[in-house]
TrEMBL record:
SMART domains assigned: GAF, GGDEF, PAS
GGDEF domain ranges (all copies): 354-486
Protein name: GGDEF domain-containing protein
Source organism, top-level taxon: Bacteria
Classification via CDD domains: GGDEF (cd01949), PAS (cd00130)
Taxon lineage: Bacteria, Pseudomonadati, Pseudomonadota, Gammaproteobacteria, Oceanospirillales
PROSITE patterns per record: GGDEF (PS50887)
Amino acid sequence: MLSSSESSGFCLTEILDNLDCTDLLHSLDGGVLLLDAQCRIIFCNRWFCRHTGFAESTILGQTLNQLFPGQLPLPLHDAIETACYQRMGRILSYQLHKRLLPLKRRTPSGELQPLHQSILIKPLSQSELTLVQCLDITNAVKREQHLRAGERILKLERKVLELIATGDSFDTVLDEICSTVEQLIPNAATAIMLLDESGDQLRIKSAPGFPPSFTRREDTLQLGASLTTCTRAMQQRTLAVTPDIQQDESWQLWSDTAERLQIAACWAQPILAAYDEVVGVFACYPQTSGTPSEPERQLLQRMAHLTAIALERHRRMERIRFLAMHDPLTGLPNRSLLNEHLGRNLRRARRENQQFALMFIDLDGFKQINDQHGHDAGDDLLSVLAGRMTEQLRGTDTCARIGGDEFVVMLETVQSPESAGMVATKILRCLSTPVQRGQLSLQVSASIGIALYPHDGISADALLTRADDAMYQAKARGKNCWFRLD
C-alpha cells in the first residue's frame, strides 16, 4: 500500500507525463524556435508567427536565412550556425546588437512598429536540436529612450533658459528653441509664429530649418480666414494636428509648397502667455505623415512654454528700454534717445554728404496754463501738442521732449533752409491751434530756433547750442515765430 507522499508524487509524475509541452510553448510571451542540425526550423510557437506575419506552414522547414533573405545581421547568422554545427550557445543582447530579427508588433492604435529583442541560442543536450528563444524588450527600450530623451530635453531647456537669463537677443532664443525640437524630432522642421500688434495676423518670427520662401507662406495668415492647422490651434487653445497635409482641404492652397519643402504633416501647439493669453503658435512639420506620440506632444508643450517665457522677458525688456528712452507723459523720445538718433544721423549725413535740420522748440505761455488750470491740464495739453507735432513729420524724422515745455525736432534730411522753414511754419500753426479740454480752451504758441548741418555746426553739441540760441532770438522777436542765425 502506498503512503500519502508516495501517492502525491505518483500523481504529479502522471500529470507531467501527460502534459503537452507544445501548449506550454505556445502560451509563452516570447518567441521559441527549434532548429535541426541543418539550421532548419522544425517548431515555432504562435508568438513567433504573430510577430513575423508568416503562417506556421510557411515557417516550418525553412532556415532563418531563407525566411528573411538578406535581412539577418552577420552576428545572428554566425551564432545560429555555431550553435547548430559546433554545439556552442550564445546570447545576443539588444544593448550590443540593435538589429536582430525583423519582427513587428502592433500598437493599441493598430500601427505596426519594430519589435526590439534579445535572443538566446542554446544547443539542447542529448539531441541535435537547438533552441532559439526571443525576448520582447520593446517596452524596456522605450522606457530607456524616454529617460534619455528627458535628459536631453532638460539639457537643451537649460541651455535655452541660460540664453534667456543672460539677455541674448530674442531672435537667437527663438532659433535655439526651434533647433532644440528639430534635434529631438528627427526629419522635422519647426517654426514659431507670433501675433502682430493688431492681434489679427500670425507672423513667422523663427523658422531656421526652412528657406525664406516658407516665411512668405504664412507671413500674412489671417486668423479670421480659413481654419488652417495653426489658426485651429489658436482658436481651440490646444494642440491641432494635420496628419496628412496632402489630404487636408485647408492646405490646398499650399499643398505644392508643402510637397516642395518635403513636409507631410503639421502639428501646431498654441503659445500661452500670462493670464492664458494666446500669443502665437509653435508649429512642427514632419517629413512623414502621422500624429505626434505622447512624448512628442509633451515636448511641443514644453517648448511652447519656453517660447512664452522668452516672449514675456522680451516684452519686459522692451518696456524697460522704452521707459528709459522715452518721455512717460507724451511717449516721445527723451534726451537719451534723441542723442542716439542725432549721432546716427550725423554719421549718415557725413557719409552721404547730405544736410539735415535741428529745431529747438519752446512753448510760449505754458507756465500760465499750469498756474491757472493746474498741472493736469498742462499735462493733457502737452500730450495733444506732442501728437500734433509728430503728425507734421515724416516717419524718419524725430520729435523729442527734453524738458517741461521744451522739444527738439530733427529732420533727417532737408533739401534747403527754406524746406526746414516750411516745416517750422507748419509746426507753429499746429501748436497755436487751441486745445479743447472740457469747457476749457487751452492755447499756447511756440518759439522755434533752427540749425542746419553742416552750415551751423558739425557736432551734436554745436547744432543744439546753435538751435537754442536761435530759439531765444525768436522769443526776442515777439514769439510765435521761427528763426535761424546767419
